[in-house]
Amino acid sequence: MTHSLPGVFTVDVAITCATVALWLLLREPLVALLPRTRRPRPATLLRCGTHARVRPRHWPCGGTSPRSSAP
């Protein structure tokens, strides 16, 4: 069924969405199971936990981040 033209646009999309949702739900708990000394590198690579919230100070166009400017 997934090798037919309708299957490519229906079944394959559903399988991909389910796989991505499962990965997003399980990546942080799986990293949390690692020993504390081994967590930073996988957390950075997988962009989970506090390591994912690092933001650049300057935008590529040369301006500053809207969050860093005073109102």
Describe the secondary-structure layout:
Elements: H1 5-9, H2 11-32, H3 40-46
Give a structural overview:
The chain is mostly helical. The protein is 48% helix and 0% strand. It contains three helices and no strands. The chain has helices spanning 5-9, 11-32, 40-46. The radius of gyration is 19 Å and the shape is elongated.
Distance between the termini: 56 Å
Overall pLDDT level: 76
Class inferred from helices and paired strands: mainly alpha
Poorly predicted residue ranges: none
Order of helices and strands: HHH
Radius of gyration: 19 Å
Shape: elongated
- Annotation, overall tally of beta strands: 0
Approximate helicity band: 40-55%
Strand content: under 5%
> Can you summarize the main beta sheet?
none
